[in-house]
Each structure stands twice: as C-alpha cells, then as structure tokens.
Design goal:
It is found in: Lysosome membrane. The protein is α+β, with helices and mostly antiparallel strands and about 400 residues long. The chain is about 15% helix and about 35% strand. Strand 3 (about 70-75) and strand 4 (about 80-85) form a beta hairpin. The longest helix has 30 residues, at about 370-400. It is globular and about 95 Å long. One 2-acetamido-2-deoxy-beta-D-glucopyranose binds near residues 135, 136, 144, 145 and 148.
C-alpha cells in the first residue's frame, strides 16, 4: 500500500514536471531566434562637411538575421519618429544625403540600399501632446468642448538633447529627451527611452512587455511638466506611416494571466494587415492599456489608458525622417492615447506619467501562461486526480487482500 502511494505520488510529480517542461518549450515557440545588433549614430555623416543643427540626431540600429536585416532609425529632426525597415538582404545599408536630409524637403534623402531588398517599412511618429482641463472628471477628451483644451505641445517644435550622450551601445538603448519652449517645461521633459532587442525577453519594470528579436520598444515619460490647470490630463497623438498597408485597426486581446502586468488583463495592438484578418500581420505597435504615475511604480500608481479609433491622416507627419524616406505610395493613420480614467488622480498629484509601446515586424508577441501559473494549474487539476487515483488504489488493495476464510472447505 505504502509503495503504491509512493508510486502514485512519484508519477504525479513527474506529470507536473512534464507539464511545465512541455509548456515552457511551447512558450519558447522557436522564439529563441537571435539577431546581431549594431548601433551607429548619424550614419555616413562627416560633421566637418555638414555640421548638424543642435538637437538633431539619427540613431541607426542594424539587426542582422540569417537571411534578412531589420533596420531601426530613431530621429529627432522634427517630431520624434522611429522607422522600421525590413530587407531580405544581409548587406542592406542606410544611405543618407545629409545636406538634403537637413533641409527636410527632399524625399529620397534617406534610403535603404539596395532598394529592391526592402520588404516592409513603417514609421511611428509622436506628433502632439494634448492637455485638457478635465473639470468634470470624465477623462473622455472626445466629448469635451474645444475650450477645455489647452494649446497642444507640438513635438516638432521641441528642443531635443544630444543622442550621443545617452547612447548605450552595449545595452542597445538610447534616451531622447526634449522640452517645449514654454514655462511648463522649465523643470520638465518628455523623454523617449528606446531599446532594441537581439533576443526574446521581458523588461524588468512594469508593464514588462514581452519582446522578441523582431521588435524594439519606446517608453514615453512625461516628467515634471507644470500642468496648466489643477485638473489637467494628457493625451498623446501618434501617427503611423506605412508604405504598404495602413495600420487601420487596433485589436484588443484579453488574457487571464496578469502576472507580468498586475491588474491588466488586456493587450492592444495596432496592426498593419489586409482588411480580411485571416492574412498575416505585417507589422504592429503593441501596448498594455496602462500608464504609471511614478518612476518606480507600486500597484496603486497604475492608471488605465484608452486609445481613440485610428483615423486616416491626409498629410505626412512633420518628421524629418518620414519626409526624407517616404516618397511614392504611403498611408498615414493617427490616434490619440489618453491617460487616466474618471476618478483617477490628476497629473498634478505626481507630475509624472510613463507609457510603453513595442514596435515590431510580423505577428506581435503573445503572452502565454508563465511556468508559475502552469504549476498552479497542474496542482489544481492534478490534486483531484491524485485523490481519485489513491481511492482506486485503496479499493484494489482491499479487493486483492486474501479474505479470511470463514468456512472450512468441505471435503
Ligand atoms: C571629412 O571631410 C573632410 C574635408 O573634405 C576630410 O578632410 C575628412 O577626411 C573627412 N572625414 C571623414 C571621417 O571622412
Ligand atoms: C552573430 O555574430 C556572431 C559572432 O560575431 C556570429 O558567430 C554569428 O554567426 C552571427 N549571427 C548572425 C545571424 O549573423
Ligand atoms: C529566411 O529563411 C527562413 C528559413 O530559414 C525562411 O522561412 C524565410 O522565408 C527567409 N526569409 C527571407 C526574407 O527570405
Ligand atoms: C529645398 O529647399 C532648398 C533650400 O530651402 C531649396 O533650394 C530647394 O530648391 C528645395 N527643394 C525642393 C525639392 O523643394
Ligand atoms: C528580395 O525581395 C525582392 C522583392 O520582393 C526580390 O526581387 C528579390 O529577389 C529578393 N531577394 C532575395 C535574396 O530574396
Ligand atoms: C460640467 O458639468 C456641468 C454640469 O453638469 C456642465 O454644465 C458643464 O458644461 C460641464 N463642463 C464640461 C467642460 O463638460
Ligand atoms: C511649430 O513650428 C511650426 C513650424 O516651424 C510653426 O509653424 C508653428 O507655429 C509652431 N507651433 C508652435 C505652437 O509653436
Ligand atoms: C559622440 O561623443 C563622443 C565623445 O563624447 C565623440 O568621440 C563622438 O565623435 C561623438 N559621436 C558623434 C557621432 O557625434
Ligand atoms: C524649477 O526648479 C527650480 C529649482 O528647483 C525652482 O526654483 C523653479 O521655481 C522651478 N520652476 C518651475 C516653473 O517650477
Ligand atoms: C491637484 O489638483 C486638485 C484638484 O484641483 C487639488 O485638490 C490638489 O490639491 C492638487 N494637488 C497638488 C499636489 O497640487
Ligand atoms: C474580405 O472579406 C469579405 C467577405 O468576408 C469580402 O466581401 C471582401 O471582398 C474581402 N476583402 C478583401 C480586400 O479581400
Ligand atoms: C486627437 O485629439 C485632438 C483633440 O481632441 C483632436 O483634435 C485630434 O484630431 C485627435 N487626433 C487624432 C489622430 O485622432
């Protein structure tokens, strides 16, 4: 009996371990794909021939794969923008005609060569920061009269810091901080923390988005800005320019696991894919609908955020990078990301907001159950099974026990 129970428990433990092992490899899903990353600032610039105006910088990250290359370009000329270009060549290069690039009126002053190797390009541009006086605490700027809005901060008119000072070529990160001309920014800034990734992983700080070798991340931080009213809330206007398919819809997916982003059971992805959703997604911007009100947030510092429906935009956004790269066919769509909901504290309580977005190629990464959750599930499902098994074992043991002979056999 004791031996039987030991065996049963032994099998049960094996079963749990196997479940975890199987699902871990399932989570891996061949995503341990690695790219070789290299960073360079202002590719091809001879600054003695073409001096850069202050605040203009162009960061190029080359993410080399086995038979393709991803190029990320982060630029602070005009509205800050991140351009992603996928080529089917391992030797594609960025070519910048710097004098023309700096004039900002010549398409083709930045290109990827050979041009025939380009499979996909897409740029995410941060165009405006809206501030509104939420007197009735509704947090729905779409329903407010124009008089509730302050003059928006045009990010194209910000002064941006030198990227050279914040570049970390070993961690593949850079910090781009800018300030508006107004008093409000005298002690404040809007910063974009860029991270490129060579392999699958997850950021330490919330919202701990899952990333892979085909993605990079931007964390937007609005720190120390003096709000123009006590009940100010903010929205960030984003625009996306693509050469092929417009990023025309935002899918919101549900999850039942919030282990990596406490209390957030949703992930939103703004995808570029043909109308009929059976076709694969070409590229995306993905975020969790949450912003944080402190740099090292606690649970209560989370504030939900909400996006407006993407709308087509007639003009190219005012980014030097976009104007230099996108000629010919292109599509632009835009949306507003609104931080906070009714009842949440206003910006003046912490004077801080951070929100994170992942930009990438192909299908967005999907959060799967963590090993911890799987163990809990295995235990939850396994325990009743164990009890049933044990019950069965006991019955069998009882049945097989030689019954005491009551009657003597009759000869
Ligand atoms: C930059 O241009 C100057 C003037 O033509 C030339 O002397 C110098 O070698 C160039 N520097 C680089 C790094 O190409
Ligand atoms: C990345 O670089 C390492 C060493 O420099 C090399 O062994 C590896 O083959 C490279 N991988 C790719 C995909 O180019
Ligand atoms: C690269 O190679 C993989 C298989 O190794 C293949 O599935 C993929 O289509 C190739 N990509 C390109 C752009 O040729
Ligand atoms: C771009 O601007 C420069 C200087 O402002 C001007 O000389 C040039 O003709 C312009 N090019 C185009 C294509 O508009
Ligand atoms: C890359 O893609 C272009 C356009 O789709 C195609 O013409 C070219 O043959 C491809 N090259 C390779 C090496 O796959
Ligand atoms: C706030 O609520 C009051 C009373 O309901 C209403 O009269 C006013 O128009 C509202 N203000 C805004 C900006 O919505
Ligand atoms: C921003 O810059 C543009 C172009 O330089 C200018 O037309 C516009 O008036 C500026 N906006 C603000 C709010 O300063
Ligand atoms: C960046 O700064 C370093 C030293 O601070 C300097 O040596 C380097 O030339 C700079 N790079 C560029 C592209 O400005
Ligand atoms: C900025 O900070 C300085 C020093 O902390 C302070 O004296 C000044 O009043 C602040 N400015 C604003 C607009 O808050
Ligand atoms: C922020 O604004 C609210 C609403 O007007 C006010 O009650 C509160 O005192 C302000 N907080 C700070 C820190 O200024
Ligand atoms: C998408 O599917 C609908 C029916 O499901 C069809 O009528 C429509 O033509 C399709 N659109 C495209 C672009 O294929
Ligand atoms: C963002 O919100 C502002 C203010 O409501 C509005 O004027 C603007 O058109 C919106 N932008 C987009 C792309 O929806």
């Amino acid at each position: 009996m004791a031996v039987d129970i030991m065996y049963t428990i032994h099998f049960y433990v094996l079963f749990v371990l196997l479940t975890v092992r199987c699902s871990s490899s399932f989570i891996g899903n061949g995503e341990n794909y690695r790219r070789n990353l290299s960073l360079e600032l202002n590719p091809g610039l001879n600054s003695s021939l073409t001096p850069l105006p202050p605040g203009v910088g162009l960061l190029h990250v080359r993410a080399l794969g086995k038979n393709d290359t991803l190029h990320y370009l982060l630029c602070s000329q005009g509205a800050p923008a991140l351009l992603l270009v996928h080529t089917n060549s391992t030797s594609s290069k960025v070519k910048v005609d710097w004098p023309a690039f700096l004039v900002q009126n010549t398409t083709g002053s930045l290109k990827l060569t050979p041009e025939s190797s380009v499979l996909y390009s897409n740029a995410l541009v941060f165009t405006r920061l809206w501030e509104y006086d939420d007197v009735n605490d509704t947090a729905v700027p779409e329903h407010l009269p124009p008089s509730s809005f302050f003059q928006p901060y045009e990010l194209q008119n910000f002064t941006w810091d030198d990227l050279n000072k914040t570049l970390d070529p070993m961690a593949y990160t850079a910090l781009l901080c800018g300030r508006g001309a107004s008093e409000s920014f005298s002690n404040g800034s809007l910063c974009l923390k860029f991270s490129a990734f060579d392999v699958e992983g997850r950021d330490q700080g919330w919202p701990s988005l899952l990333h892979n070798a085909n993605s990079s991340q931007l964390r937007v931080v609005l720190d120390g800005v003096v709000p123009r009213s006590n009940r100010s809330r903010f929205s960030l206007e984003l625009q996306v320019v693509g050469s092929t398919q417009a990023m025309s819809r935002v899918d919101v997916l549900q999850s039942i696991d919030d282990e990596y982003t406490p209390s957030i059971f949703k992930v939103s992805q703004w995808v570029s894919s043909p109308v009929n959703s059976t076709s694969p997604v070409l590229g995306y911007a993905q975020w969790k609908p949450v912003a944080y009100r402190r740099p090292s947030p606690l649970f209560e510092d989370a504030t939900p955020c909400r996006h407006s429906t993407p709308v087509p935009v007639a003009q190219l956004p005012p980014s030097g990078l976009v104007l230099a790269y996108f000629g010919g066919e292109h599509q632009t769509t835009g949306l507003n990301m609104t931080f906070s909901i009714t009842g949440d504290p206003f910006y003046n309580t912490t004077n801080y907001l951070s929100w994170t977005v992942l930009v990438g190629l192909g299908s967005p990464p999907v959060d799967s159950f963590s090993p911890l959750v799987l163990v809990i599930m295995a235990v939850g499902l396994g325990t009743p099974m164990l009890i049933i098994l044990l019950g069965g074992v006991c019955v069998c043991v009882r049945k097989n026990k030689p019954q005491p002979q009551v009657y003597e056999p009759i000869n």
